[in-house]
Structure formats: structure tokens, C-alpha cells
Design goal:
This protein is α/β, with parallel strands linked by helices. Helix content is 31%, strand content 23%. It binds 1,4-dihydronicotinamide adenine dinucleotide.
Length: 738
């Protein structure tokens, strides 16, 4: 038998709970252990009058059955008072069911201002005020469940209910946004459109039907949606008669009605009307981003003339993908000629200024030590990305491309002018389900001599699911910083014109300059180039640990996390571990991480006696990638795993007979964590395995059924509670999928 849903310790406010649906919710919550605030103004159905009797009766019923309840007679228009009562009586508020309601039905022509206003005040404004009063408490306790009560009259319209329909659909709009804003605080908001016999419906339904559509059939849905184990958020449900259905939006594929350099005309709309309204192959957009993405797709299609065929439509599906044809494909060689001007422009683009005298060597071609910043190495290589459009077996929608990670390695300092050639190869293609990940390796040469190597890691949203492999083998991997406060921090302002300046180095994407383009991508204004923040962070490290000596720079790896808006400050946090400097870059104003898993490897200084604590053979272990993914999963679903697993796993990954890496997966403490190197909590079980065998276990080659068989085959050494290896299988199987 499954576990029953209980609400012990939870405090619930049900508005309008003196009768009808609200009463049923309150009774069921009371029965299931919640403390209930039974709110009801006790007026008539049109919003007149006031009485405490209705709420008192329901409180009495709950108490008689052994439950906890208290009555509240305020109007929902006094939202604060309702929540204050919950806090004063029970010390917290966990669940708000906005249910109170009245009716003032009139045909539209006869709807008075009062009919309109009263309905909006009770339904829409009342729900807003009550919910707003509870919001910060829910946010602080990182738990909240909210119900909005809409109506079929709002969803579909109903004669004589213009005021009510408008308010009821307004509640859905409110819920949609609360679901988005609340998600990260574990505040979920769902909407119901119930049908039940009550005093509100007795004038519109025949008595038999009224009798059959019992309010008690609706209450269980409310309880499930409000339970801590329910992850539903932003849903809309019709419910009644013992049936529940979920609603969503559907949108026709539609029709592009304009062509490049032409206006839309009313006639072109008329002539394509049947296609605009044709629901064959309709899509179901679920977010504003998806909705806007269509417009971005349309713009790119119109601009590239893809609408020439009058029957072509906005399609967001990706036709047949053939990664095996793409992997290993070499793109046409690209040539890049530059002078000291490009080097200086780049330095200004990544925030260098004559305000710092040490920057002069990057800004003045007459300086005795005029140098080019090492991260300029991405510039000659970046144009190779456009070549991806001609790779066989890949059909890339460039409007959906996200730059995920970047690796750059210099084999010698870059010259301050010259002509370079870049050869790009598709190193790997990965099916991530929600999208496609492409690794593009670019080698850049000067007169036949290899100067630098870039690895671009790009993600094409929505192009996954083509059945390709899920494990990258050729990726340069990120590395998390040590578990201590940073050794050094540098904060630098970006200017309002930072992106405008940086783009002159060759990244012309309008996303970084054109407000309307940025808005279509879902951004409030144009964003800074990820590679610009990358340049900022790299020069911070070069300054802090290499005295701005470009010959010390060896390589850099970063993962791009979040956008930066020009004008924000970048805070680079650094940890030095031998010749490796781990770094993390944040937006100072928000604390949001911009670059993560990042590091720069430096060449030892001629006078540097410190030895690298990161031996070369440990760089680039294949298992690092899996652990990085495990780390990410723990961030997402760690709490759930802790409940399921409740153990600490130690890992020793060996290479060439030596321990190359230690990891601890703590699924016992808090909401779980992953640690690289030494970790204070004692592992319940520790596994020792070679890097190669670890990958085989993960990929299921060594033994698809049981990791513990690997133990018997002598490939996996286990210390501690061997029984826990059973649980391990679940973690590796479910949480190391790449
Ligand atoms: P009901 O009239 O039995 O219950 C509504 C309760 O809200 C009443 O007890 C009333 O005193 C209370 N109330 C009214 N104004 C208030 C205020 N300002 N402050 C506090 N309490 C107030 O009606 P029913 O059918 O149970 O409706 C509950 C909710 O479900 C309403 O929001 C209604 O619009 C909605 N609904 C009901 C449908 C049905 O078939 N019964 C259909 C669609 C929506």
C-alpha cells in the first residue's frame, strides 16, 4: 500500500471556507493533520452582509473530529489580517487556498461599475492580497503551496458572466507568474476550475445535478497539489464529478505572412487564414521563452529568405540528424589577418584601461613590452563556428545556439600582428535529450607552426532526441575549486558600452547590442558576450599570479553559466593550487555565478620554486566528467537522493598505478554534496578503481547489471560497507548520464 498523504505540522488557510467547496477543503485538511484557518466573511452570494456563523460551524466540525482549527471572519480584501492570524495562532503559514468568491451575474450591457469592481475585489484582488501577505513567509521557509480558484466561465466564457470571467482568468495569469517566481523557493502555485453544487451554482444547475456534483469530489485534488511531495507547479486543472483533467495551451504551426523587405498586408493575412488557423501538427508552448523563440526563428527565416516557398511554415523540429557523418568532419580553413589595432581593441573590449599603468603594455603599440592578451586566441578561431552550418549530418538552428564551455591552450605567446589560419574539426556530437552538444576543435597556425588550440562547446536547444550517444569522450573538462575561501579576489566594473566595444573584435551577434533582439531572447537588455567575461577573468588571473607576463599563460577552461549585463561588476575569485589557478566569476551586484568550473594553468615562473600539486597525468581524467555531472545532479535533486540513499561514498580514481583523484559523494548531509580531494565526513564505503574501469562501469560495459560484479572481477576495490554498492548502482545509472 502506498503511504497516505498527511499534513502534520502544516498550517493551511482556506478562504471562503464557511460553506461549499472551501468547507470541504478545510474539513479534509483538518482530518489529515493540518492546522486550519477557516476564513469566511459570512455574507450573501452577491457580497452583501457579514456573519461569523459559517466559519464557526466548520471550525466546530473539524474540532469535533479531533482536528485543529480556528475561525477568521475578515474579508479577503484584508489579506494581511488573515495571514497574521495564522502566524499568531499557529506560528507559520504553509498553504493558502484562495477560494472565497461571490457572483454578480449580468449580461454585459447591464454590468455596472459596482458589479465589475466587487467581483474583481473579492476574486482577483483578494487572492492577490492574501497571497502577497503569505509570500515572504513561504520564501523564507522555502516551502509554500498556493491554490488559485478559476472557473470554466473564465476559460471558455459564459453568458452573463463578463465580470466574473475576466477576474477568474486574471487569477490564472497571476498563478502562471507566481509559479515562475516561486519555483526556486519551493513555492508552487496551481489553479483549479472546479464544478460542484453549492449556493453559487444553485441558480444555474438543476437540483439533481447540483446534488450529484458533490464538493467533496474536488477536495482531494487540492490536498494533493498542496502536499510537500507534489512537484506540480503552474498547472491548470478542471475538476468535478470525480474527474480531473489538466489543461494547456495549444498553438497552430502558423504561417509566416511576410517576406524579406516586404510589409505584412491585411490581404496576405486573409489569404493564408486557413493555414494560420490550422491545428494540424500544433505545438504546445509552455513558457514565454518558447513563445518568443518562435519569433526569433521567424526573424531569422525571413532574413535568410526561407519563407520564399509560400507553403513553408514555422517549424521548430529538427530534421534527421546523422552525428556519425558529422564527427571528424573538417571545416574549410579560415584565415585571419590582424594588426596591433585588433590587439588593442580586444584589450579595451575586455575592460583594460589606461587608468591602470600595468595595462599600458596591452594598449600602446609603442610600449617596449607591447603584448597581446592570451585570450585573444579565441578571436582567430571564432569564425569557424559559422562553418558549422555546412557540416553534413548536422542541421543547426543558430538562433538556438548557446555557448556552453570554452577551452583555450596557447603553445607560444600570440604575435601582435600577422596572418593566422585555423582548421576546425567536429570532435564530438552528443545527444543531451533537451538539445545537442557539439564539440568543435580549432587549431590555429602561424606559417605552419601551431599557435593555439580552442575547444568550443556549443549547445543547440531543442535539437536533441536524435538517438545519438550521451557520453562525451573528447571534452576538455571543467574542474571545481577547492573547498575553502578564495585565495584572491579581483573586482572590476564593466562599462555600459562593454559589449558594444567587445563586438568590434568580431562577434556581431545583435543579442549584444540590439535591445529588441535581446528582448526576443528573453533578456531585459543586450547582454555581454560570454567570451568578454572570460577575457576579464583571465586577465585578473594573469595580473594576480603572473605579473601580466603573457608567456606564463598555458591554458584556460570555463563553463558559461549566466549572462552579464554591461555596467555590472565582475568579481573573479581565485584559488591557487600549484600551477593551476581555479577561478569562479560572479556578478558582484547579484552574486550570480557567471563562469564556473574554470581554471587557468600557468607555466612555472623561471624563479618559481613551488611544485605543481596537480600532476600532469591527472589532468583530463575521463571520470572527471562523470563526477562533474553527478555534482550537477546533486545540486538539482540532492535532497531527494539523500532521502533515498543516506550514505557517504568515497572514490579513489587511479591512473598508471597511482591515486590520481579523490572524490566524496555525500548523500547523507543536508541536501547532498560532491567534494574533490580530502573531505571531513567519513565515507561509509570507499571504492578504488582505475579511470578506465570507472568509465566502463558507468557506461555499463563492465557489467550492466551490478557494479558489485566489477568488485568480484577484481576491477573495483571496496572498503567499508559493501552492501552500499547496491545503492551506488542507482546513483551511477540515474545520475551519471551524460
Ligand atoms: P460558496 O458561495 O459556497 O462559497 C464561497 C464562500 O466565500 C462563501 O462561504 C462566502 O461567504 C465566502 N466569501 C465571499 N466573499 C468573501 C470575502 N470577501 N472574504 C471571505 N470570504 C468570502 O461557493 P463555492 O461554489 O463553494 O465557490 C468556491 C469558489 O469556487 C469560488 O471562488 C467560486 O467562484 C469557485 N467556483 C465554483 C464553481 C462551482 O461549480 N461551485 C465553479 C467555478 C468556480
Amino acid at each position: 500500500m502506498s503511504v497516505s498523504l498527511t499534513f502534520a505540522g502544516r498550517v493551511v488557510l482556506v478562504t471562503g471556507a464557511g460553506g461549499g467547496l472551501g468547507r470541504e477543503y478545510a474539513l479534509l485538511f483538518g482530518e489529515r493533520g493540518a492546522a486550519v484557518i477557516v476564513n469566511d466573511l459570512g455574507g450573501d452570494i452577491k457580497g452583501g452582509g457579514k456573519s461569523s456563523a459559517a466559519a464557526d460551524r466548520v471550525v466546530q466540525e473539524i474540532r469535533t473530529k479531533g482536528g485543529k482549527a480556528v475561525a477568521n471572519y475578515d474579508s479577503v480584501e484584508d489579506g494581511e489580517k488573515l495571514i497574521q492570524m495564522a502566524l499568531d495562532t499557529f506560528g507559520r503559514i504553509d498553504i493558502v487556498v484562495n477560494n472565497a468568491g461571490i457572483l454578480r451575474d449580468r449580461s454585459f450591457a447591464r454590468t455596472s461599475d459596482l458589479d465589475w469592481d466587487l467581483i474583481h475585489r473579492v476574486h482577483l484582488r483578494g487572492s492577490f492580497l492574501v497571497t502577497r501577505a503569505a509570500w515572504n513567509h513561504m520564501k523564507n521557509q522555502k516551502f509554500g503551496r498556493i491554490i488559485m480558484t478559476s472557473s470554466a466561465a473564465g476559460i471558455y466564457g459564459n453568458f452573463g458572466q463578463a465580470n466574473y470571467s475576466a477576474a477568474k482568468l486574471g487569477l490564472l495569469g497571476l498563478a502562471n507568474t507566481l509559479a515562475i517566481e516561486g519555483q526556486k523557493y519551493n513555492i508552487h502555485c496551481n489553479t483549479i476550475a472546479p464544478t460542484a453544487g453549492s449556493r453559487l451554482t444553485e441558480t444555474v444547475m438543476p437540483p439533481d445535478l447540483l446534488e450529484s456534483l458533490k464538493a467533496e469530489y474536488v477536495a482531494p485534488l487540492i490536498l494533493w497539489l498542496c502536499h510537500e511531495s507534489c512537484q506540480e507547479n503552474g498547472g491548470l486543472f478542471e475538476v468535478g464529478a470525480g474527474w480531473i483533467g489538466k489543461l494547456r495551451w495549444e498553438r497552430s504551426v502558423g504561417r509566416i505572412v511576410r517576406q524579406k523587405n516586404q510589409m505584412v498586408t491585411p490581404e496576405s493575412v486573409r489569404d493564408t487564414w486557413s493555414e494560420i488557423c490550422d491545428f494540424t501538427d500544433a505545438t504546445k508552448p509552455a513558457s514565454i521563452q518558447e513563445s518568443l523563440q518562435t519569433l526569433v526563428d521567424v526573424l531569422s527565416r525571413v532574413n535568410t529568405g526561407l519563407t520564399a516557398n509560400p507553403t513553408s511554415a514555422v517549424s521548430v523540429t529538427v530534421p534527421g540528424m546523422n552525428p556519425s557523418a558529422a564527427i571528424g568532419h573538417t571545416l574549410a580553413e579560415m584565415s585571419f589577418t590582424y594588426t596591433h589595432m585588433n590587439c588593442i581593441l580586444y584589450a579595451l573590449g575586455v575592460g583594460m584601461s589606461t587608468k591602470d599603468p600595468h595595462h599600458l603594455k596591452f594598449l600602446y603599440e609603442g610600449h617596449e613590452d607591447f603584448s597581446v592578451l592570451p585570450t585573444f586566441g579565441v578571436i582567430p578561431a571564432q569564425s569557424s563556428m559559422t562553418g558549422l552550418s555546412s557540416v553534413p549530418g548536422l542541421d543547426i538552428d543558430f538562433t538556438r545556439l548557446l555557448h556552453g564551455e570554452q577551452y583555450l591552450e596557447l603553445f607560444k605567446p600570440l604575435p601582435t600582428s600577422g596572418t593566422l589560419s585555423s582548421k576546425a574539426t567536429v570532435a564530438d556530437v552528443l545527444d543531451k535529450g533537451s538539445g545537442m552538444l557539439i564539440l568543435l576543435d580549432v587549431h590555429t597556425y602561424s606559417g605552419g607552426e601551431l599557435l593555439c588550440y580552442n575547444q568550443f562547446s556549443v549547445f543547440i536547444v531543442g535539437s536533441g532526441g536524435f538517438g545519438g550517444k550521451r557520453m562525451l569522450q573528447k571534452a576538455m573538462v571543467t574542474a571545481d575549486p577547492p573547498n575553502r575561501a578564495p585565495d584572491a579576489v579581483i573586482v572590476d566594473e564593466t562599462s555600459k558600452d562593454q559589449a558594444a566595444l567587445y563586438r568590434l573584435s568580431g562577434d556581431w551577434n545583435p543579442l549584444h547590442i540590439d535591445p529588441s533582439f535581446a528582448a526576443m531572447g528573453g533578456f531585459k537588455s543586450p547582454i555581454l558576450h560570454g567570451l568578454c567575461s572570460f577575457g576579464f577573468a583571465a586577465r585578473h588571473v594573469l595580473k594576480q599570479y603572473a605579473g601580466n607576463d603573457v608567456s606564463r599563460f598555458k591554458s584556460i577552461k570555463v563553463r558559461f553559466e549566466k549572462p552579464v549585463y554591461p555596467g555590472q561588476s565582475l568579481q573573479t575569485e581565485m584559488w591557487k593550487e600549484g600551477n593551476r589557478v581555479h577561478l569562479q566569476c560572479k556578478v558582484k551586484e547579484t552574486g550570480g555565478v557567471v563562469l564556473s568550473g574554470a581554471y587557468i594553468d600557468l607555466h612555472a615562473a623561471a624563479d618559481d620554486t613551488s611544485v605543481s600539486v596537480c600532476p600532469p597525468q591527472t589532468a583530463g581524467l575521463q571520470s572527471d566528467l562523470v563526477f562533474a555531472e553527478i555534482g550537477r545532479r546533486i545540486k538539482d535533486v540532492g535532497a531527494e537522493l539523500v532521502k533515498k540513499v543516506n550514505a557517504v561514498f568515497g572514490w579513489e580514481i587511479t591512473k598508471d598505478g597511482k591515486t590520481a583523484r579523490e572524490w566524496t559523494i555525500d548523500l547523507k548531509t543536508g541536501s547532498g554534496s560532491l567534494h574533490k580531494g580530502a573531505y571531513s565526513s567519513k565515507a561509509d564505503v570507499t571504492f578504488t578503481v582505475t579511470d578506465e574501469d570507472f568509465m566502463e562501469v558507468v557506461m555499463g560495459k563492465l557489467n550492466p547489471q551490478k557494479a558489485s560484479k566489477a568488485f568480484f572481477a577484481g576491477k573495483l576495490k571496496v572498503r567499508g560497507n559493501i552492501m552500499l554498492s547496491q545503492k551506488l548502482e542507482a546513483i551511477l545509472k540515474e545520475h551519471a548520464k551524460l
